[in-house]
Specification:
With 104 residues, the protein is mainly alpha-helical. It has helices at 7-35, 41-70, 72-102. The chain has a domain at 53-104. 87% of the residues lie in helices and 0% in strands. The protein starts with 6 loop residues before the first helix and ends with a helix.
Length: 104
């Protein structure tokens, strides 16, 4: 086993991580419905789900390809680099967005 903790603790840690992910992604989805006007809320949620699904499908294929051809270490580093770049981009976006509306 990779980790030196028992299976129950490992299950709790995974449940905690998944709970955080679900909370973040469902918050984004609920805010998406607030942006759309009532007439097209269903279309907005459908397009959001389509884009999310296509991106997840592509990222899972890419991760699996890297894992099969280069090993799990390279795949994990790839995921880590993409995660850090996404966090950095979102922080820059939030800073720019908040600065733009604080001046008005």
């Amino acid at each position: 086993m990779i980790l030196s903790i028992n299976n129950v603790t490992y299950a709790y840690v995974l449940a905690l991580i998944f709970g955080a992910y679900a909370g973040i992604s469902e918050t984004v989805q609920s805010n998406n419905s607030k942006v759309c006007i009532n007439r097209i809320k269903g279309n907005g949620l459908g397009i959001y789900s389509l884009v999310t699904g296509v991106c997840l499908f592509g990222s899972n294929i890419t991760f699996g390809f890297i894992w099969d051809n280069y090993g799990i270490s390279v795949a994990v580093v790839y995921g880590l680099i993409l995660s850090i770049s996404a966090i950095t981009g979102m922080l820059a976006f939030i800073k720019n967005y908040s600065n733009r509306y604080e001046k008005n």
